[in-house]
């Protein structure tokens, strides 16, 4: 796999990290009444890159299947993330869209995001859920964890009432 494909997989994983595992948490700023703030740490597992024609170079339509282990802020495993990311635009700072599902002990959460490789902050929409998260909506802010390891992300999830 070329270095560019590896970078695509890491970037795709970074946004698909914008998904949810629930843990108790406080917010950095006051939340709207009834909003639930959740913090998540995720660790990337090996990705699978789908190299669509023309093969051998990163281009529009190439995809990454991303899986991540999800942990609460105390290090306890709380679930897993499964997502598919597609390159939508090439160039020096390509565009990517991702959709994913976080499987948690008491339900699932669905997320969707659009971003560029070099974005420092990735934002995603919470678009639904099942079980304890039925009807969930809100957004997620995702950043690479301190230390710069691109395989570890920290997320702040905002679930609206």
Q: Specify the biggest β-sheet.
A: 8 strands, antiparallel, barrel
CATH class: Mainly Beta
* Mean pLDDT over all positions: 81
What is the CATH superfamily? Allene oxide cyclase-like
Number of DSSP helical runs: 1
Distance between the termini: 44 Å
Tell me the series of helices and strands, N- to C-terminal. Answer: HEEEEEEEEE
| Strand fraction | over 45%
**Major sheet strand order:** 1-3-4-5-6-7-8-9
Tertiary shape: globular
Structural class: mainly beta
**What is the radius of gyration?**
15 Å
Explain what you see.
With 161 residues, the chain is mainly β. The protein has one domain (3-28, 35-159): Allene oxide cyclase-like (AOC barrel-like). It has one helix and nine strands; from the N terminus they run H-E-E-E-E-E-E-E-E-E. It has one helix at residues 3-16; strands at 36-44, 48-50, 63-71, 77-89, 95-104, 107-116, 122-129, 138-144, 152-159. It has an eight-stranded antiparallel β-barrel with strand order 1-3-4-5-6-7-8-9. A hairpin with a 7-residue loop joins strand 8 (138-144) and strand 9. It is globular, with a radius of gyration of 15 Å.
How are the secondary structure elements laid out?
Blueprint (H helix, E strand, L loop, with lengths): L2 H14 L19 E9 L3 E3 L12 E9 L5 E13 L5 E10 L2 E10 L5 E8 L8 E7 L7 E8 L2
